[in-house]
Amino acid sequence: MGKFDLTGKTALITGAGRGIGLQIALTLQEAGADIILTDADAIRATDAADQFLVKPQVHQLDVTDSQSVRDLAARIGFCPDILVNNAGVSRAAPTKHTTDEDWRVVLSVNLDGVFYCSRTFGSLMAERGSGAIVNISSMCGDVVTRQESVVTAYNASKAGVNMVTKTLACEWARSGVRVNAVAPGFVRSEMTDKYPEEVVKAWSDQTPMRRFGQPHEIASAVQFLASDAASYITGTVLLVDGGYTCW
Ligand SMILES: NC(=O)c1ccc[n+]([C@@H]2O[C@H](COP(=O)([O-])OP(=O)(O)OC[C@H]3O[C@@H](n4cnc5c(N)ncnc54)[C@H](O)[C@@H]3O)[C@@H](O)[C@H]2O)c1
């Protein structure tokens, strides 16, 4: 695997109980990393751990609770080499019908969570002088997708993730910590399975590759950015979107 090899590194992934996060954890383990699998849903996280060849460490972590993030760092007792801020939620509704609670939940999981985890683990990485953070953003942080659903809070949260990524990348660039983001297009997961088939078809038709991405296609990009193969890359938001944003 050469520079893509993660042997000897420990990777902490948030929201890894299912979907893209779970696939990222499996892929990073395949690349040699020791895995710390976390999710707000403790049962989901424990069940997910059964899918690994080597059982990962499993911890319940709600990324919206900054004290829990600090407590987890203390419980683990060392600083991971790789942090993947993957936990995210989406609530689609016309803006008129988006409640205060909808707005807060989406912003707190998708944006506060990235900040809290980066602040705790990234600061430890910076003190140590090495580390890589990969944030799971979305192409929706950059473009507004066509209006089969309205996701104002989601889009705002992911635009925020992109700016957090660039800002932390600059802050920690000379401390040996790289901070990047992967911005997926439409990917098959429980987040998108809730949409009706005609919406899924419309989104596929609007994508130059005419299909949704698979979680493993996002995980490969994360592996790259987390590895020494990306040693001169920081502050980048890497689109993995089947060409959606070209049109
Ligand atoms: N599926 C897509 O099309 C798509 C596209 C672009 C970006 N993304 C992003 O990819 C990431 C993963 O999405 P997915 O499709 O796998 O979603 P998913 O809903 O299948 O999985 C999300 C996971 O996050 C966990 N989670 C939710 N709230 C949490 C919290 N407060 N703390 C910790 N964990 C929490 C859930 O328990 C779940 O296991 C998200 O950041 C999402 O915004 C997804």
Plain-language structure description:
With 247 residues, the chain is an alpha/beta fold. It has one domain: 3-Layer(aba) Sandwich (Rossmann fold). 43% of the residues lie in helices and 15% in strands. The protein is built from 8 helices and 7 strands, in the order βαβαβαβαβαβαααβ. It has helices spanning 19-30, 42-49, 66-76, 100-128, 152-172, 190-193, 197-205, 215-226, and strands spanning 10-13, 34-39, 57-60, 82-85, 131-136, 177-184, 237-240. It has a 7-stranded parallel β-sheet, sandwiched between helices. Helix 1 (19-30) links the parallel strand 1 and strand 2. Helix 4 runs parallel beside helix 5 (152-172). The N and C termini lie far apart (34 Å). Nicotinamide-adenine-dinucleotide is lined by residues 14-15, 17-21, 39-41, 44, 61-64, 86-89, 109, 113, 136, 138, 184, 186-187, 189-192.
* Each distinct ligand: nicotinamide-adenine-dinucleotide
Span from first to last CA?
Answer: 34 Å
> Could you tell me the mean pLDDT?
97
By secondary-structure content and strand pairing, the structural class works out as: alpha/beta
CATH H-level superfamily title = NAD(P)-binding Rossmann-like Domain
CATH architecture: 3-Layer(aba) Sandwich
Low-confidence sequence ranges: none
Give helix % range. Answer: 40-55%
Query: Compute the gyration radius: what is it?
Result: 17 Å
